[in-house]
Design a protein that fits this description.
The protein has 172 residues and is an alpha+beta fold. The chain has a single domain (11-170), classed as Gcn5-related N-acetyltransferase (GNAT) (Aminopeptidase), CATH 3.40.630.30. Helix content is 24%, strand content 26%. Strand 2 and strand 3 form a beta hairpin.
């Protein structure tokens, strides 16, 4: 089992609030310009599962965010989609973990993944899933995720680009 890594003291994760949404959207536009999403998506993820939405505070403002929520395994939602709650989730889905380049190597990514894994276990979910983009597969592998090769996922990954990989981390 992977533990929660020490975080550089210049940064701290905290729960996202409605007041953070415009800053989070601005970060998304800088970090993921090739994957634009509307303001409604960010508000929707907070409404869907506020416990899975965090921001990374730095000494001079927000440096990153994460959006995550219980969902259906092997059913990644298309980008820029507003979601309805589901009755029987089978995975904990990480919609987006976005960090400014200056935070890389700070331990922020590893720290939040560890926190999300603990939350997913508390919810009784057997695994965590995500779609890796922007050549992030190696980061996610270091967090215990493996690429899930399933031809049935092909159409579901189209909105994420040619390099997208569906990944799973077992929590048992």
């Amino acid at each position: 089992m992977l533990g929660i890594a020490a975080l550089n003291p210049s940064y701290a994760w905290r729960p996202m609030t409605a007041g953070d949404l415009s800053s989070v959207k601005a970060l998304a536009d800088v970090i993921h310009p090739e994957f634009p999403e509307t303001d409604a998506v960010f508000a929707n993820r907070m409404a869907l599962h506020a416990g899975g939405c965090e921001v990374l505070d730095g000494n001079d403002g927000l440096k990153g965010y994460v959006l995550s929520h219980p969902w259906q395994d092997r059913a990644p939602p298309p980008l820029d989609a507003v979601l309805e709650p589901i009755a029987s989730p089978s995975t904990y889905y990480i919609h987006d973990l976005a960090l400014l380049a200056e935070t890389r190597g700070s331990g922020a990514g590893t720290a939040i993944v560890g926190l999300l894994a603990a939350r997913a276990r508390t919810l009784g979910l057997p695994n965590m899933t995500l779609v890796a983009v922007n050549n992030s597969v190696h980061f996610w592998q270091r967090q215990g995720f493996t690429v899930t090769d399933d031809p049935a996922l092909g159409a579901k990954l189209l909105s994420y680009g040619d390099q997208a990989r569906f990944m799973t981390r077992d929590l048992s």
